[in-house]
Amino acid sequence: MIELKLDSFRPEYKGQMELYLRWLAKYEQEPDEAPPLGIILCADKKHEQIELLELDKSGIHVAEYLTVLPPREVLQAKLHQSIQQARQRLEQQNGG
User: Fold this and answer.
1) 38 lies in a domain?
2) pTM of the full predicted structure?
3) Which of 16, 21, 22, 28 could, after both became Cys, cross-link 55 (CB 3.0–4.6 A)?
4) Contact, 64 vs 27, CB < 8 A?
C-alpha cells in the first residue's frame, strides 16, 4: 500500500495505514503471500520523507529522508530495490 500525503508526517497516518493494511491482509492477501507493507510518502513545502510500516511490527521506520524528490525513474528503482530487500528479509525469517 502506498499513500501520498502533501504535508509532514503525523502520528495519525500510522493508524490510518494500519487500517488499510489490515483490510488488505483480511480481504486481498493470498494464503502463500507475506503480510502487506505500507509506504507513506510525505511532502510538505520544505522536504519529503518516506515512512515504511510493516503490519503487526512495533514502530514505524524512516526508510530514507530526501530533501528533493528524485525523478520518477529513480523513485521506481528505489521502490523495486526496497521490495527485493523486503522479500529477502522475509525469506530469511521464514527459513527459505
Assistant:
1) yes
2) 0.55
3) 21
4) no
At 54, which amino acid appears?
A: E
SS (H, E, C) the chain: CEEEECCCCCHHHHHHHHHHHHHHHHHCCCCCCCCCEEEEEEECCCCEEEEEEECCCCCCEEEEEECCCCCHHHHHHHHHHHHHHHHHHHHHHCCC
Distance between CA atoms of 61 and 96, rounded to whole angstroms?
A: 25
Q: Which residue has the cell 511490527?
A: 57
pLDDT per residue of the chain (96 residues) written in tens, 0 to 9: 888 887 888 888 888 888 998 899 999 999 888 888 888 877 776 766 666 666 666 555 555 556 566 777 887 787 777 777 777 877 887 776
Q: Flag whether 57 is in a domain.
A: yes
